[in-house]
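This section describes the prediction task in plain terms. A model, or a person checking by hand, is given the sequence of a single protein chain and must write out its three-dimensional structure as a string of tokens. No templates, partner chains or ligands are provided. The sample shown here is typical of the held-out split.
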Amino acid sequence: MFLGFELMPTNEEWADEIIQVYIDLRCQENDIVFLTYKDLAIRLGRPGQERLLARPLDIVREECQKRQIPDVATMVVSKESLVGGEVKPSTKAASKYNDWTSLRQEQARAISFDWKTYKD
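The expected answer:
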């Protein structure tokens, strides 16, 4: 805290937190594989700040490539698409992939990846 104000984490710090939140989630005994932007913000301890996740999620993509793990950012989807069964990230996030097939392949990779054995 600085002069009574909480300092915001950097986008890079948020990206690291997002990856860790997802790894922790997948290592638990539950069936959750997709998160909405709102759910992610809550799990990060930042309820109501889901609109601030775009840049950190871009960094997540880069960091996942460096770590040679599936792109965790593809698993963060809009509530509407989750409820509708489409499980799509935002249009901007999806544009990082050449086509929907590539995006779906990355999501499948994240679903099948053994997160319990991953060591950073």
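For orientation: The chain has a mean pLDDT of 88.
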